[in-house]
Write a structure and sequence with these properties.
311 residues; mainly alpha; Farnesyl Diphosphate Synthase; 16 helices
Length: 311
């Protein structure tokens, strides 16, 4: 693991032109750290631990860990702390996907190009997988290396609030209540997605910065503005991809939101207006990074990547 970190370190000082190389290395680092944090499949209970590894490893863009690493550059955060924070955020994300795919939620059979956890294993195991991934995330933060207790406690607070009824879980509840029953207007849709998708993206960004030197109040506000904008941008692009990309490209069932009568930006605004809105969000996010100068180069590149992603 340390050898991997040594190879990655020189990339931190390179320009944005090497963003693709930086991103690939950071994704590899996150994957290795996740694999190390998860119990081995040979550890009792075998089936649960095998399913946890199935749900968390071997796929995904690792967008939230990337945001943790990139935001850490703003505050000169130590790599070991960033790695642990990135693992914690991704474990919560993996738990949310496992539960969202269940028949009682979105009832999906495909995730990251392979059967969802409850299809590969069973529904009871998938429920336990989500529970166990969530608790492991907070265990990781309780043992984060190199940070004073008060800083570690702030990380716990940021992740807990983003995950609960005022964040991700609450957004999912609003989403489920809206399916096929009402048309949300834009403020209602944005509130839902700011909670369901944006809250964890916002937390990942703030957690990365929190692992390093304290930011001034104005800098914290600017970073939070950036995080809110890209949280919405991610969902806006997701809505466009759901109606324009194939199942093979997405790795999940394409067109499922429309078929289920889910409210989306495309159904509310139309595809052309949604594309324009995505550009507006990206521009606003980049403007919020101006106070950080070159320290925010990776975050700026991630905003571009989120807008331009194809899956």
């Amino acid at each position: 693991m340390e050898g991997l970190a040594t190879r990655i370190a020189p990339m931190m000082s390179m320009g944005v032109q090497d963003f693709q190389g930086w991103m690939a290395a950071a994704q590899e680092e996150a994957e290795a750290a996740l694999a190390a944090a998860l119990p081995a499949a040979t550890t009792l209970p075998h089936r649960l631990h095998s399913a946890m590894r199935y749900a968390a490893l071997g796929g995904g863009k690792r967008m939230r860990p990337l945001l943790v690493f990139a935001a850490g550059e703003i505050s000169a955060a130590p790599r070991a702390a960033l790695r642990t924070a990135a693992v914690a955020v991704e474990l919560v994300h993996a738990y949310s996907l496992t539960h969202d795919d269940l028949p009682a939620m979105d009832d999906d059979k495909l995730r990251r190009g392979r059967p969802t956890c409850h299809i590969e294993y069973d529904e009871a195991t998938a429920l336990l997988v989500g529970d166990a991934l969530q608790t492991l995330a907070f265990e990781c933060l309780a043992n984060i290396p190199g940070l004073p207790p008060e800083r570690a406690l702030k990380l716990v607070s940021l992740l807990a609030r983003a995950s609960g009824s005022l964040g991700m879980a609450g957004g999912q509840a609003i989403d489920l209540a809206a399916v096929g029953r009402k048309t949300l207007d834009q403020p209602e849709l944005e509130l839902m997605h700011a909670m369901k998708t944006g809250a964890l993206i916002r937390a990942a960004t703030r957690m990365g910065a929190c692992c390093g030197d304290a930011l001034a109040a104005e800098e914290e506000a600017s970073l939070d503005c950036f995080a809110k904008r890209i949280g919405l941008l991610f969902q806006v692009v997701d809505d466009m991809l759901d109606c324009t990309a194939s199942t093979a490209t997405l790795g999940k069932t394409a067109g499922k939101d429309a078929a289920a009568g889910k409210p989306t930006y495309v159904s509310l605004m139309g595809l052309a207006a949604t594309r324009e809105y995505a550009e507006t969000l990206r521009a606003s996010a980049l403007a919020a990074l101006k106070p950080f100068g070159a320290r925010a180069a990776r975050l700026a590149a991630l905003a571009d990547f989120i807008q331009q992603r194809q899956f």
